[in-house]
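Here we describe the complex-level prediction in full. Unlike the single-chain runs in Section 2.1, the two entities below were treated as one system.
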Amino acid sequence: MRLLKVLGIYFYSAVLILIGLLLIIFSILFSLDKIPFQLHDINNLIVYLQNSFSARMTLGLSGFLLILISFWFAEIILGRFQREKTIAFPTAQGEVTIALSAVEDLIKRLAVFIPGIRELRPDVIASKKGIIVDLRVILKSEVNIPELTEKLQDITRSKIQEVLGIEEQIIIKIHVLKIVTHEEKPNKRKDQDRDDETPIPFGGYGRT
Amino acid sequence: MKEESHTDLGTIKIHKEVVASISNVAACEVEGVKRTGTNLKSVLMEFAGKKSSSAIKVEFDKNDEVKVEIPLIIKYGFSIPTVAARVQENVRNALEKMTNLTIKDINISVKGIERG
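The structure predicted for the assembly as a whole is:
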């Protein structure tokens, strides 16, 4: 799935780059007054397309294929397939399925309870080995990383076991994305303070 | 499709939407349930002004047994298996009490977790 995701991103980038390059080339050629084709060339092409059934079919099918490919890649990039994956367990009354995105929601909320963590971006995969949790974290600068990551692994594991009630193996991988310094926060707070200041209503001059 | 039962005076039909609505109310009564999930259809129906449209799926099989599928959003901090089991029990009780239908399965699908 990751390979397809990367392929999808490359596909879109390639298409956009191609469009961009074509626009740049055409703008340069137009400004130099060197148009690579004549108007009757376009006319000939349109006439050819009108007359040839196979050319029309090829054009239509390529368009349809392009739409399909782009829709497929969009689905992959947006993670719809991932979202539909679930953990299921049967009960006496029926079946209970838990979307992996729900588990991701659960893990995201843990960031609030662990000081030192600025942001958590979890990616949960259910495999034969068990549940694999890929955690990408943004930390605050003053923390001890080995201590904090160990604590985070423990808390995440116990929370998943407690909430999902499963005994499967849970593998937690942590990847520290960024360490944020304290300077970024006070600025925001200052801005907030400014917003929070309640304005003193102007009573007008010379009133008693 | 509607579930039909015959009485001396005539027939009583219960629409799928009715079963879905009862299930929706019964599920939301359980502590730990934030709300029932939505899908594109239910969002569009709600946008069109139709009330109580949820993504709950109801199926009647050949033996007149009902199968209900409930998407749930659960409050943060609650045990999912416990909440799911309570929802199954509450929905079964409510449906049996109100409709007299035979319930085959109540499948729960946890779609998300939100702060309570």
